[in-house]
Amino acid sequence: MTYCVAVSVKAGIVFCSDSRTNAGVDQISTYRKMHRFGRDGDRQFVILSAGNLATTQAVINQIKNDIQENAFTNIFNVPNMDSAAEYLGQVSLAQQSKYNLGSTIYEANFIIGGQIMGKPHRVMMVYPQGNYITTSKDTPYLQIGESKYGKPILDRIIEPGTTLDTAVLCALVSMDSTMRSNLTVGPPIDVCVYEADQLMQGRYFRLLQDSDYLRDLKRAWDERLKDAFRSLPPIQWDTMWDPDKDQAGS
Amino acid sequence: MTYCVAVSVKAGIVFCSDSRTNAGVDQISTYRKMHRFGRDGDRQFVILSAGNLATTQAVINQIKNDIQENAFTNIFNVPNMDSAAEYLGQVSLAQQSKYNLGSTIYEANFIIGGQIMGKPHRVMMVYPQGNYITTSKDTPYLQIGESKYGKPILDRIIEPGTTLDTAVLCALVSMDSTMRSNLTVGPPIDVCVYEADQLMQGRYFRLLQDSDYLRDLKRAWDERLKDAFRSLPPIQWDTMWDPDKDQAGS
To answer: Which end of chain A is more exposed for a tag (fewer CB within 10 A), N or C?
Structure first.
């Protein structure tokens, strides 16, 4: 399994991904799921991948090859982010169809985010079927993989005006919640922060399994969350309504 | 969809369920998913249900009929909680197989918890296949339905020594997180608290859509969670490791 999230705010885009892959519980490996492509001053992309590892690796390889061979369509010559997402969807479909012989489907999901000179920065999620969606003011983030455990904190914190530092922290808390509840999501954690209109490779860092920061964040969030829970008003039993005892009260 | 959770601690069992059912987004109804059966001084059960509504209603009806007709096996004469869970699994399988003509499967999941005189209180989850699992010291709760959004807070708070009041509050926070992220889980919320060794019907209450308590809890938890997030230590960029810039540092 995998968990990747991209948060798009006015100030830029935060990307965060785990690195655990598994084919059964005894075949667990570490692969980077964050891939960066860019030409300084012209365009910058980050691609996050989830799903079948053979498919995602083949897709990333073809994107690289298309750049090197200066293919008619490649992410260094697409005119805008929509075209980049559409191109990614086509590459993904082409790779999946190569091995689509039996009933097994080697699907993959991608998030692509970034900016092309003169255009706004954007994030899209590309489905295995090749089509894609983008973020909105109401939904300023996109997730792929094991997305449910880490969704509540994003829903509560992220809005278009959120700062990049807060978005990084929130993405890491979202990742922490996911890792706590799903063993197949795990470190190293890759983080990339693209600042709007810079058109330069964003800040990137990696948190390893034994990272002090990851351990401190995990502990701090656990403590803060427990404090928050303990500070909730206790149940007032006498105000609770039992419809079975109160026939008049419906 | 549905969300039901049962928390089993030393002091007793807390049951919590939503009431929304849907067959497509424009066919949304309200049905109680919590069913109580008991004979004071002898045994008490609460059954929570998720899945196909026709199946769950048929199962609950058969359990009632078996009691009324004093069937050879019914939940008023099973010797222990394991037998109760096994009986529930058999009833569920029988009802599913009645309509299992095409490829569509009308599956249902159940949680059954309670106590029989002279035995400890216990909780089991019954799979659509009829088999079942129970709780443990490490996993003192069981969920059915849309379980992921509400799992993290249970993992952090619930342990065998947790009080019943705290377990109720935690179940409600878990329910709130689920309702916030999934539209198909919604009020009224049913809560039942069975106190260990009482063998009397537990305390029961229902929170409606416009419940003051539900609204206050939702707001309080949202505020506390945001406060908790804001109190996290900020990212220290200078301590973050970029493996691409630090060839020596792996």
So the answer is: C
